[in-house]
Amino acid sequence: MQQEPSRMIQIRWHGRGGQGAITAAKVVAEASFNTGFGGVAMAPTFGTERRGAPVCTSLKIAKGKIYDLSPIVSPNIVVVLDHLILNEVDVTAGLQPGGLLVINSPNPVETHALPDFRVAVANVTKLGIEAGLRKGIVNSGIIGVLGRASGLVDLDTLAACIAEEFRDRKPDENVRAARMSYAATQIHEPTPGGPDA
Amino acid sequence: MNHKMIESGNVAAALAVRLAGAEVIAAYPITPQTPLTEKLSQMITRGEMDAEYVAVESEHSALAVCIGAASAGSRSFTATSSNGLLYMSEQLHWAAGARLPMVMCVVNRGVGAPWSVWNDHQDAISQRDAGWIQVFAKDHQEIVDMTLKAFRLAELTHIPVMVNYDGYYLSHTYMPFELPDAADVKAFLPPYEYLHTLDPERPESLNTVTLPDARHDVNGVKRGGYMDIRHNLHEEMRLAMEVWEEIDADFQRRFGRGGAPIFDLYQCDDAEFVVVAMGTLANQFRDVVDRLRHEGIKAGVLSLQMYRPFPSSHIANLLQSAKGVMVFEKGLSYGNQGALFADLKSALYPFPARPTLHNFITGLGGREIRTEDLYQAVKTSCEPGNQSSPEQTDTPQWIGLQL
Description:
The complex is a heterodimer of chains A (197) and B (403). Chain A is of the alpha/beta class and 197 residues long. Chain A has 5 helices and 7 strands. Chain A has helices at 21-34, 124-130, 139-150, 155-165, 171-184, and strands at residues 9-16, 39-44, 54-62, 77-80, 100-104, 118-122, 186-188. Chain A has a 7-stranded mixed beta sheet. In chain A, helix 1 (21-34) crosses helix 4 (155-165) and helix 3 packs antiparallel against helix 4 (155-165). Chain A is globular. Chain A starts with 8 loop residues before the first strand and ends in a 9-residue tail after the last strand. Chain B is α/β, with parallel strands linked by helices and 403 residues long. Chain B folds into 2 domains: 3-188, 3-Layer(aba) Sandwich (Rossmann fold), CATH 3.40.50; 263-399, Rossmann fold (3-Layer(aba) Sandwich), CATH 3.40.50.920. Helix content of chain B is 40%, strand content 20%. Chain B has 14 helices and 17 strands. Chain B has helices at 9-19, 34-45, 59-71, 82-87, 89-97, 122-126, 140-157, 182-188, 226-255, 280-294, 312-319, 339-348, 371-382, 390-393; strands at 3-8, 24-27, 52-55, 76-80, 103-108, 133-136, 161-166, 174-179, 215-216, 222-223, 263-266, 273-277, 299-304, 306-308, 324-329, 356-362, 397-399. In chain B, strands 3-2-4-5-7-6-14 form a 7-stranded mixed beta sheet, sandwiched between helices. Chain B has a 6-stranded mixed beta sheet with strand order 11-13-12-15-16-17, sandwiched between helices. In chain B, strands 1-8 form a two-stranded antiparallel sheet. In chain B, strand 15 (324-329), helix 12 (339-348) and strand 16 form a beta-alpha-beta unit. In chain B, helix 3 runs parallel beside helix 5, helix 7 crosses helix 9 and helix 11 (312-319) crosses helix 12. Chain B is globular, with a radius of gyration of 21 Å. The chains are: A alpha/beta (197), B alpha/beta (403).
């Protein structure tokens, strides 16, 4: 028998072409695999990507092998690498009630609060610069926010996978960015009954 | 020692080609195959792979280079997709007719016009009669294992082998797989020794003009004409199924993976209703089968791993006692029906108690294949009394049309 779809963790990543969402998803895939998830499948959305345009990547994680490679319809987690994408794309489309929305944003978590979802925010862009990265490198940092808010994989495993993936591109600074973003993550829990309840 | 990794399907294929010890690579980039040839080119340039990479100006030349290399006794490889495969078509027939062993990965993509870079199976299906062996992989591990086995099959049968895998669904998706140890692969796949290697010391006439009739050679031995030579290709292609099974058994003994060379069956033992499909589409049906089983419907899925030669008696023996068989495919013979469906129907014809048949066309040009739609299609086909009229049986139903 296969795992129930509900036992599968489905993460949809929203970024801009060239921002490294695919690399980030690959790092989380590696880290999940290394911590005992036998099934991982990371599929970029198949399109004609341009630098700067909104792009999307899907990552399925399960204990057993994944057979269904069709696109994610109802994710448990949505990761947004650039808060301005919120103005262009309906990022929470299909997100399961109580699901997690992870955003790189300069604004406090309250400004992104939603009644139905957990929202996790850190200013990954700013922290990346502080960690010694070029402005705009956010894909290592966002992994820290996702790790903190989801508890999916521990920080040290994520850091090891980041160091390996970025071994030719400032590995220490990328790990530092992830650790700083992990520490700076703010979480807003869903508000049952809506924002006015 | 095994090497586990998470990479794209194209990288999995490239690493398998390196492990197989391919000596000559000639390819022309085309989406979604491009990263495969880029990876091979990169490994060769960096000295990580001992092979000659011949950059060519077209797919026709790519296969022509492989034909030359194989004639000279080199293990050769190419890869393409879609219209690139069609541009090779003349050379495809030549490679098969000349009985040159080689392996080609076809990263399946819809055929233009209109242009589509996305996945379906029309490229491979349209070349099914070229005389190549065609196998279909469902995941990255199968891409690796099939590619290694394909070189041995090609070299044992002297028939070229096409390893098909779905564009994007596999080519650009990252998933875990294992690479076998290089020394173990060497033992499984010994160096290619071609009996008719081009050699100035041993001149031979190869692929000369044949006559309609058989004739005697310079030594007075009767040699076949065109028709006899082509008959041999057909007969030996039929025998290739057994060779493929033997290779798979040996591979399984050495590497612990395999056991499903012709079909990969899921829940088929007591199945009354069987879905037949190829590539990743077959795996997508596993959840559908689980759901139907949960509802008390005895469903199963048969993934066809080898399409040419077509395992007609194997498949007919397996399916003849089922109540219903549904064939889902990502390509068709325009003006008729799904090619796989027609093949399967013909295989079942001699069996009097043959099942009810349904044909579904889905996912052309990357149209999203919703698992829910597959479930509904199978469930409807399983309903009692859903016996199609002869005309309905022969009319494919299209899933996912938007107009």
